[in-house]
Amino acid sequence: MALIESASEITRDKVIERLQTTLPLMEVALPPRRSPEEIVEFIGEARKKAAGRVLSVTGWETALPTDRPLAGSLGIINFSRERMLEGEPRQIWWMNPSFKNAFMHYARDTFSWFMLRLRLTELPEPAIEHSRPEPVRPSTGEEERIRKDAEFAIRHAVAAIRRGDVESAIDSVVPPLWDLWTIDHNADILKHADSLDAAIAASTGYPSVADWIRERSRHASPDGISRHVAFLRILGMARYESGAVDDGKLLVEESLGLARRRTEAEISVDSLRDLSISLDNVGNVRLDAGQLAEAIAAYEESLQIGRDILRDYGRSLQALRDLSVSLNNVGRVRLDAGQLAEAITAYEESLQI
What we know:
Blueprint: E1 2-5, H1 9-19, E2 25-29, H2 36-50, E3 54-58, H3 60-63, H4 70-79, H5 81-85, E4 91-95, H6 97-106, H7 108-112, E5 116-119, H8 140-162, H9 166-182, H10 186-204, H11 209-216, H12 222-241, H13 245-265, H14 269-288, H15 292-313, H16 317-336, H17 340-352
Parallel strand pairs: 1-4, 1-5, 2-3, 3-4
Helix pairs in contact: 2-4, 6-8, 8-9, 8-10, 9-10, 9-12, 10-12, 12-13, 12-14, 13-14, 14-15, 15-16, 16-17
C-alpha cells in the first residue's frame, strides 16, 4: 500500500506514466461527489477487477460530497477500510496536500495501513513565477474549477490552522491562490485571506497570517521561508492590484526581505530564483509608482542573478526563460526612462535566447 502526496496533477501524471513502464498498473479515477459508501463500493469493485495488477486511485479531492462534513465522510471511509483493502491490496492512492492532511486526521486507522508514504517534492511551483502569465481567459468550466479548488483548499487549511498546523496550511494554499491570481480573481484571494486571518487570530492570537509569518520566519527553515515568501508575494500583489497600494507594496517588499534571508541561509538554484522573482515583483510595483531609478535597480539585480544561475548551474529551459523575462523587464524600464539604446540592447539579447 502506498499513499503519495502531490500538489501538482501534472507531476502526478508524469510519475504515473513512468510507473506504467515498470508496474502492471490499473488506473481508476473516483467518480465526483458520491457518498462515502459509494466510494467504498467503487474501490472494492475496482480492486477485484485489478486481478493482481497495482490499483492506482486518483480523484479523492472531488470524490466526496460537499453538502456534508468531510470529517463524517472520512469517518465512514475509515470504518469501511477492510472492504477496500482486504486481501492483497497492492494499491497507490494519490492525494493533494490539503486532502492528505484531512485524511490523516479523520481516517487515521486507514492511513496507518499505508506502509509507503511519499511526497513528490520536484513540483512545478506555480507560486514562484516571474510574472502573471499572458492573460488567457479560461473557459467557464475551468474558471469554476479553479475557484472550487481554492475554496476546498481554504476550508482544509482553516481546519489545519485550528489543529495548530499553520505551516501545512500555508503550504497547501499557495498553489490555488496562485491559480486565482493568474485569472485575475483578486477578490477571491482577499476573501480567502480573510478566512485564514480569522482562523489564525482565533488559534494563535496573531492578527493575520502575515503577522504570524513575520514572527515565525525568524526561526524557519529555508523551505519554510520559501513558502512564506510565496504567500506574501501573492497576497501583496492581490492587495496592490485591488487598490490597497500601501499594504500591497509593504507585503511585496517584505517578501523580498525574506527571500534575501533565505539566500543567506542557503545558496541554491531555488533560493536564487526566489530572490530574482521577488526583485521582479518589487520592480513592478516601483515602476507602477513612477520610481524609475528604484525599479531599474531591482530589475538589474534580478537580471544579474539570472546570469549567475545560468553560469553556475548550467543551461535549462527554466533558466533561459527567466533570463529572457528579466531582460524584457530591463528593456521596458529603460525605455520608460528614455534610455533607448540600453532598452534595445536588452530586448535584442532577449530575442536571441
